[in-house]
Specification:
Elements: H1 16-39, E1 52-58, E2 81-90, E3 93-94, E4 98-103, E5 109-114, E6 124-128, E7 138-139, E8 144-149, H2 155-158, E9 163-171, E10 177-185
């Protein structure tokens, strides 16, 4: 027995509508890819904050040594350490790309430190190895930043005893938070 196939006399192809839709879709995709390269839209995609493990602790100094105008007891001696921020592990962080924001329990900003403010705030200043950080130095594993009382009494309004503070370490290059840590001022 011989198998016979029917003859196909139908010579239709792809519908012209489908062809036009495919051509438009390919053109749009090509234009988007070329536009991204020309406008350099993909350049900031790779910007990420450095990955590091950072902790904050109470400095253990006698912070509440004297009363200020009948208000809370506070030690207003310049450079009295309040907190230590320790780089435990991970990537090095350039001080020129770092910002430290300190918030109280209710989320209010207590202080903000960066190279643009010369690492000082109204109530506190920052030192590393007893020196103000410079834009050429880095915060590396094993380093310790001291958050110190500034030489004025307005710090009593910014920092109070028995209050937990949140430290946000921010990479200014990418705008992302490197880490968030908390410490209670004793």
């Amino acid at each position: 027995m011989k198998l016979e196939f029917p003859k196909l006399d139908d010579e239709r192809g792809v519908s012209p509508v489908i062809g036009v839709i495919l051509m438009v879709a390919i053109t749009v995709i090509l234009a988007a890819v070329i536009g991204a390269f020309v406008l350099n839209l993909g350049s900031s995609v790779g910007d990420q904050a450095p990955q590091a493990s950072i902790s904050a602790t109470d400095a253990g100094a006698v912070y509440n040594a004297t009363e200020v105008d009948g208000g809370p007891a506070i030690n207003t001696t310049n450079d009295t350490p309040m907190f230590y921020i320790n780089h435990q592990s991970g990537a090095d962080i350039k001080f020129k790309n770092m910002k430290i924001v300190v918030q109280s329990e209710d989320g209010a900003k207590a202080a903000s430190f960066s190279g643009s403010t010369n690492w000082t705030d109204a109530g506190a200043n920052i030192t590393i190895d007893d020196a103000t950080p410079t834009s050429s130095t880095t915060f590396t594993t094993g380093d310790q930043i001291s958050v110190n009382v500034a030489d004025n009494t307005s710090v009593a309004e910014e920092f109070t005893d028995d209050t937990t503070y949140k430290f946000l370490i921010i990479d200014t290059n990418s705008g992302n938070t490197i880490t968030t840590t908390k410490a209670t001022l004793q």
